[in-house]
Specification:
single chain, 261 residues, mainly alpha, 12 helices, 72% helix, 0% strand, globular
Length: 261
């Protein structure tokens, strides 16, 4: 199935499920006074439409099976990691700023400003997954290439997250900049890994004939580079941590490469 209209029709129940999940977690955020928990939900909002598509079209071929296994692995790892990282902390400063800008009644506004928006974005990002699950084209070399790219990105992202977590856990590193391991070659290797994950998953959809789902990896690339990723994190970090300016001078922001002299 590669017809845009037919595929969107299959994807719509997934959007409804994602919205229900978003509302449930929004209710928890109101009770906790912490909108940050939406970050733990994000990957599950992306996975949900693909799972629903499989229920709507129960024809699990090798591409559908591979897609759901890969996407499920990505979603569970990311949700678990973000939940572990945030556990015991107050609301993230990014959401505190959003809260301050949208008072009074932010608790209600967050339903659409944060959770509704995340559900919609997650649904758009999930379109290659839905297309790969619904597709009936024969397995081909693009599928194999997509799996290789996904696995490479997944490993890079998981390793980078682990290296950063260990670095932050050492009190002697307070105020210092991680510039070893994968972080020696990129200032955001975890985001680069995420980039590879989504272009890899799109190749599975492309092999299924749904080239137009390229909107998903393009959106993820824009988010990683310009919206919630590199640009946001580095907005004022050089002012808060002078050592980071030296790190910027010698290290690529996104694509890994050898450090500059």
């Amino acid at each position: 199935m590669n017809d845009v209209g037919a595929l969107l029709l299959v994807a719509m129940p997934g959007l409804a499920v994602a919205c229900v999940l978003a509302v449930l977690v929004w209710m928890a955020s109101v009770a906790l006074h912490d909108v940050s928990i939406v970050d733990s939900l994000w990957s599950l909002l992306v996975l949900a439409p693909a799972c629903v598509a499989l229920l709507v079209l129960p024809q699990a071929g090798p591409r559908a099976t591979a897609t759901l296994l890969l996407a499920g692995l990505w979603a569970v790892r990311l949700a678990a990691y973000i939940t572990w990282r945030h556990w015991g902390h107050d609301e993230d400063h990014r959401y505190r700023e959003i809260r301050a800008r949208n008072e009074p009644h932010f608790a209600w506004k967050s339903l659409y400003l944060v959770f509704g928006l995340q559900a919609l974005l997650g649904w758009v990002v999930s379109l290659p997954l839905v297309a790969a699950v619904a597709g009936d084209a024969p397995w081909g070399w693009l599928d194999a290439l997509g799996i290789v790219l996904f696995v490479s990105g997944f490993v890079i992202e998981a390793l980078a997250d682990g290296q950063l977590a260990r670095f932050k856990a050492d009190p002697s590193n307070r105020g210092r900049v991680l510039a070893r391991g994968l972080w020696r070659y990129s200032r955001h290797p975890n985001y680069f890994g995420e980039f590879c994950v989504w272009w890899g998953l799109w190749l599975l959809a492309l092999s299924a004939g749904a080239w137009w789902t390229v909107v998903s990896p393009l959106l993820m690339t824009a988010l990683l580079l310009r919206v919630s990723g590199v640009t946001l994190l580095e907005k004022d970090i050089g002012q808060r941590r002078p050592a980071y300016r030296q790190y910027v001078a010698r290290t690529n922001a996104f694509f890994p490469w050898r450090p500059r002299a």
